[in-house]
Amino acid sequence: MSVAQAFSGAAITVLFATGAIVGATLAPEPGWATAPISIFVVGMALSTVPVGVTSRRWGRRPTLLLGTTLGVLSGALASSAILAASFRLFLLACFLNGFHAAVSLTYRFAATDGATDEFRPKAISYVLVAGVASAILGPQAVQHSFDLGPAPYVASYLAQGALALLALVAVAFFRAPLAPAASGAPPTPASALLRRPPYLLAVFCGLVAYTAMNMVMTAAPLAMTLCGHSNADANLGIQWHVLGMYAPSFVSGAMVSRFGARRMILAGLALLGSAIVVNLGGDELWRFWLGLAALGVGWNFAFVGATTLVVESLAPEERTRGQSLNDFIIFGAMAAGSLLSGGLLASGGWSTVNMVVAPALLAAFAALFSKAARSQQRRDGAAP
Question: Which UniProt keywords apply (predicted)?
Answer without folding.
Answer: Membrane, Transmembrane, Transmembrane helix
